Amino acid sequence: MQTSPSLRPVLPILIGASVMLSLALGLRQSIGLFVQPAVKDLSVTVADFTLAIAVQNLAWGFLQPIAGAAADRYGYRAVMLVGAVLYVLGLFLLATAEGLLGVMLGAGILIGAAMGCCGSAIAMSVSSRSIPAGIRSTVLGIVSAAGSLGALVSAPAGQMLAESFGWRAGVMGFVVIALVMLPAAWLAGRVDRLPVPRQTNVAEALGMGAAVRLALGHWPFVIMSLAYFICGLQLVFLTTHLPSYLALCGMDPMLGAQALGVIGGFNILGSLFFGWAGGRWSKGMLLGGIYFTRSLVLGAYFVAAPTPESTLVFAAFMGFLWLGVGPLVAGMVAEMFGLRWQAMIQGVAFTSHQLGSCLGAYGGGLLFDALGSYDMAWKLGVAMGLFAGTVQIIAGLPRFPGTPRPAPA
Hints:
This protein is mainly alpha-helical. It has one domain (9-191, 203-395): Up-down Bundle (Growth Hormone, Chain: A). The chain has 19 helices and no strands. It starts with a helix and ends in a 14-residue tail after the last helix.
């Protein structure tokens, strides 16, 4: 109760960041609903469509550090508004695509660039600047949880429009929803008026290049970033290929939308829990536990033929273990390197995540086209996840320092 007065002035910022993040993630996660109908309509292969998703993830990853640096120079509002406009344009191009080029430009390059400007790293940095350090992890969990609501709306809405009027109508519905990102970005941009809290972290006093070099030379950050690669691989494999996998198994097409919606719903619980837990226990160990447990759940689901019941239970477990990563990674970066360069340094780690996302989307499509099933793809994803989780747990043990070494004199 004592913290509510300190949060009241920044509530508009947190609400704007939450709505922006919710729509950005929810719409993107639901694009997989349109893979099968779009492939048939445009006469392209599954690998072709997933190549666009892979390009999206690469664009997001490589542009994220640039967007973070631009936010420090030009302000968060300008960066987030550019991202919202690019998102609307990308969805419109996808809805009107006549071939692979339109899919690549819309779902690939433009939405990827948009996510770099208004995705999780920027939203979490905006929120971090707005709140005291003592409650930062908990509030980041709340923002991440609110960011999970988009999939609850977008996935069922997109599926219903696609079933009634075709997949293009479903994407056009997403265009209308994405317009709400513009006022949300404007509202979150009020953070530019707030002073950056002073910290004693050595990275605060460094220039942009020196801060990046410090991060890349700090091995706990490097391990976190490499494990983040496997996180991206697993999650984007699911969002891209789960609807297609269910369709191939003879499941109702609406089940894919329902599963994505359940993931979004349980994201809320997971984000709240891991945001709370990150303020009490080692964030690195919690991250490793997420990766390890998520891999076990993946293996348990794919080892047997899916049913509607098993799919929804699987989606619930995966949702709980999904966006809880967000507040943990944001909190670790803020603790290691301070707030000034948080968006940029978190973007560097996120580049690794997106390289994994690229492999999960496109690699899954390639393996499916080559082998006619997803068996090899999910087995590789599980094995890599178990390894990454184990290494991250070990690196997160309390005996390992969580702050970077001082810069050389």
